[in-house]
Amino acid sequence: MGNAWIGIDTGGTFTDLTLANVASGSYWFHKTPTTPDDASRGILQGMRELLEIAEIDPGEIGFVCHGTTLATNAILEGKWARTGMITTAGFRDVIELARQRRPNFFNLDVPKPTPPASRDLREEVTERVAHDGSVIVPLDEEAVREAAARLKARGCTAVAICFLHSYANQAHEARAAEIVREVWPDVYLCTSSGVLAEFREYERFATTSVNASLLPVIDTYLERFERGVNDLGVEREPLIMQSNGGAVSPAAVRAMPVNTFFSGPAGGVIGAAGLGTEAGFPNVVTLDMGGTSTDVALIRDGIPGKKGARDMAGFPVRTRTLDLHTIGAGGGSLAWIDPGGLLKVGPKSAGAMPGPASYGRGGELPTVTDANMVLGRLNQSALLDGRMQVFPEKGLKAIETRLCGPLGLDAVRAAAGVVEIINVNMMGAVRVISVEQGEDPRRFALMPFGGAGPLHACDIARIIGIPHIFVPQRPGILSALGLLHADTRGDFSLTRLATAEASSLAVLQDGIAQLGEKAKAWLRTERLPAQDAVYEWAADMRYVGQNFELAAALPSDRLDEATIDGLVEQFHTAHEQAYGYRMGDRPVEIVNIRLGVGVVRPVPPPDQAKAARGTLDEALIEVRPVWYPDTDFTDTPIYRRTSLPLETSFEGPAVVEQMDATTVIPPDARVLIDRFGNLMIHISIEANPEGQS
Amino acid sequence: MTAPAVDPITAEVVSRHLLSIAEEMGATLIRTSFSPNIKERADCSTALFDSRGRVIAQAQRVPVHLGSMIGAVDAIRSRFPLEDIQPGDMFVANDPYSGGGSHLPDINVIAPVFRNGEIVAYVANIAHHADVGGMVAGSEAAVCRSIFQEGLRIPPVRIMRGNKVLKDVLDIILLNSRTPDERVGDLNAQFASNHTGIRGVEALFARYGDTTDAAIDAYLEFTRRRFETAIRGVAPGTYHAEDFLDGEAEGERARIALKVTIGDGRMILDFEGSAPQLTWARNIPNQALIATVYTVAKSLLDPDVPANAGYFDAIEILAPKGSVVQPQAPAPVGCRSISCGVLGDAIAAALSQAMPEKAIAGSGPHHLAVFAGPDPRSGEYFVNYETIAGGMGARAYRDGMDAVRVHASGAANLPIEALEHAYPLRLERYALRDGSGGYGQFRGGTGVVRDYRALADGITVSLSSERQHVPALGLAGGGDGERGRFVLDPGTDEERVLKSAEADIALARNHVLSIRTPGSGAYGTLQKRDPDLLERDVREGRIPESLARPRAASAAE
């Protein structure tokens, strides 16, 4: 395997690329404009340039991992394929009825999401399977043939086959798929039992039809991307990052594009987990703050939290994803005055165009970035290492005209208010995700990244009561770096509703066998040797009559009476831990069987700083007044990040500037630069009741 | 009180802390609760009150809880002398007539927060408990004739002292539930939620010290100004509306009369002239009335206004005692959420006159069905409680939403695959009810058809509804919504239309019950509908071609 590894993260404005020589520990980084019409064009251009910069031959590339927003953008913009659906007679509206709730209780103008298959493209066929998998009404094969012909004639290119209870018996769906392929060989097709073999029809049908609608889109894209990578002279097949934090082959993504919805942010979290563990901070809250939104995630013992569902464009997409909280606020968020006179920040954003007023691209509305500039926290002449000129007077004017008048406050107080409000919004996101997972965030270090994270992290940490802030070496491109840390991972599940007792052994063992087959096929697709794979079996369980599940780990794929008893005991204990009590005499049932298959890849070495580093004084760019909540404007040394010496420490106040981010360090902070060039900031936390609890 | 001046920034920052605390309370409640109602359907809400009992922040997950803990905090403040309330106390209440509840399954738990020996705030949460006793499992059915049949009534009483649960009180609650284990779990979650809230409020006061109270006052004041600005955007005047609940006998109806007066940044809703309270459990108790008024006003005037006393205070509600919108004990109230759909329409109709550009037509409320009987598969008795959505009214500029819970109600449906696993019933059809939404320039939201086949002997059904006698009205020439209907064995010789409320009728094995929920009203005449939309409606089978074609013909002329 070649020693050159490449990570590619496509964002809305820029594509970030990382190249590591894992033999020497050298890293190279590159940024290139994203090409929205065909993202692969920008990526391939970027790869060519990066290889030139690093003077590396494409043949030396041993690993390429790509974080993609393609599926996400397609679904958000409705740029999916013309999609048909074949479903059980009497139930074509399930996908439109949804869960009978309004998406927003108070805003009556937020409609339910429009299903990818419009009603006239949803064909009903006679068939019916019961909850236990028994066939009540046989499949009308002729009806399937006719439905396929009609959908083809109406210009569909993709089809979702969604029958009731197919998780319990997939025969009808499988047979229908066979028939459709017979009459329509080049159709893009998926079945609900193939995509998500779990019960609850709306969620399964929604996930399946969204998946179907993306099949042609992702295929075209990957085709171009793969061919381009190959044409560059790269011999290795590139891998794609999934929402679950594992990278897989293009073939796997071609079958399951829904697995890539959080591909980009997942790279950042995996990177944060890798860097944190490396630097001795396995417990981390990440704060990935970009221009329009911020993602927050919790990493425990080096492992990011996961969950089984997340909404995408209003659809309940049931795939394993890292547990990320997203809030609609970032550096580009607009500050405005509400009709009652309160200062508000977000959720509207200035976006890439026109962007903050001080970028001078025609924006006239004040943003968080403008506030930071007025307060001296951002460089007032240029950003991006001097490559992008800025116009602080335009930011100041926007704040004065839009905020100062209505508030009756001066520009500095207004700007400070904008920063204070976005910080308290971030605090809310960090606290809620921690409480949801039953954790106290103060036990964790805060790891800011993204363009705006390090600018706000110390203030946010102080509000929450977190004393340690860990600013990685390259916060602006951590997602691209994180892609190099990806293992390969597939998650599979199957509903088998059965009481947890010996009489259910056959049903459960059959389910386990089916999942095992799925995993084997997947390993073959990934061309990975089965002996390298680590299997994690689990069962989602509940007390009979409950409507939600807790997961319990299965020791192996062999079940007997003793393992079932062990499983039940494990469930009682988990329930007691989560809810404070157990119901020992109540029957327990198994709902889903889950299998996670992981193939661990080697960890890339730490980024060894290439250039010889000088002293702290040599890293000093200038001294300028910077505003802090406690000390107002204070003369502050501004350092160049890439010139800072390793394994030194210094005191705040300080501002550290680098190409991709700016770190603000308040007056009472201590900073330690570790041997990798990470900044470990320690701030003092006042004792308050939160601190004593 | 000499409050220091607080600027809009500090007020906003403190408000974000308050909301964050309320959200954390909600996250704690959902994470630690037991029953699916709370865990999966999030039928719960959390709130913070100031020392005077005003709502300062609420994280409501169901609109019918909007403002609904106000009564409970007031009840505690009036029932217990201030010096009797100690740190470590918590109180519990659910009674609509003495404890600020809106129906018995919703249990409030309230705790004071102290600073320097004085109450500075209250934290409270409300959770829908799956069963609090009464004549039917689930503790709500239209057929109850008295609140005493609906379950255990809990006035505001202390449930915790010195941070220790008072077991005597707890045991009374548990003995009165069919599912006591769940009740312990859910109540513990409610206590944990309040503990989270208490810690958060204490920390907030520690951080902002004496400024905190002033900042809270300022925040309420800014909210009041915001909502007043919204009200001032509406033409001042007096607007009359009326709508009707279905009456007690077939063909009868019960009036909800409303006069809304708008002026000077305030709104007064007067329900004088409304019908006397009903003997069936479709009465609307005070807290449900308040929640519906606050919800509809917020939806139509300013959907993003924060849920606190600042905006509540701009609204005054007058309702005659003993009427359907202000029933007196012991009138039953269990099914108030269906009636609140009609109440919401009356409020929306009045406000639509005041702001025609945002007008919304009448809506189709959900229907309630409770199936019960022996399950031959397990040998156990089952109870399946389901709400089946109607549709939301069309607005002056867009189609109504199909198949949703309307106004203040919001619970989810039961998945077919979960239903068939759990009960001896099979669904034969679950579909949009074509033609049930009124036709017009903007289509009324359609209701739903849900057909159940009984797979076992001895199954009985209880049914509750509204808008089976009185349709949801269209606006500006738009068609009315179709009325709801319960039909036995449709399309067979035995087809029979049932009454709009039925108690424990037999659904014999292999027979089918079809529930057809009401659609909503349209806005504007069908002639004005965009031809492209009309073409799509026909293509998608949402409107018969015969209705669309004359329009096409006349357009060609």
Automatic annotation (TrEMBL), chain A:
Top-level enzyme category: hydrolase
Gene Ontology molecular function, alphabetical: 5-oxoprolinase (ATP-hydrolyzing) activity; N-methylhydantoinase (ATP-hydrolyzing) activity
UniProt domain Hydantoinase A/oxoprolinase: residue ranges: 204-489
Biological process terms in GO annotation: glutathione metabolic process
Domain Hydantoinase/oxoprolinase N-terminal, first and last residues per copy: 6-183
Keyword Transmembrane: no
Keywords recorded for this protein, A-Z: Hydrolase
Transport in keyword set: no
Record-linked InterPro entries: ACX-like_C, ATPase_NBD, Hydant_A_N, Hydantoinase_A, Oxoprolinase-like
Bilayer-crossing regions: none
GO CC, alphabetical: cytosol
Acetophenone carboxylase-like C-terminal domain span: 503-676
EC number: 3.5.2.14
Protein name according to UniProt: N-methylhydantoinase A
TrEMBL record, chain B:
Alphabetically ordered keywords of this record: Hydrolase
Span list, region Disordered: 519-557
EC number: 3.5.2.14
Domain of life, per lineage: Bacteria
TM regions (residue ranges): none
Group of enzyme by EC: hydrolase
GO BP term, example: glutathione metabolic process
Stretches with biased composition (Basic and acidic residues): 527-543
GO cellular component, one term: cytosol
Domain Hydantoinase B/oxoprolinase: 7-525
KW Magnesium (keyword) present: no
Single Gene Ontology MF annotation: N-methylhydantoinase (ATP-hydrolyzing) activity
Protein name, entry field: N-methylhydantoinase B
Organism: Lutibaculum baratangense AMV1
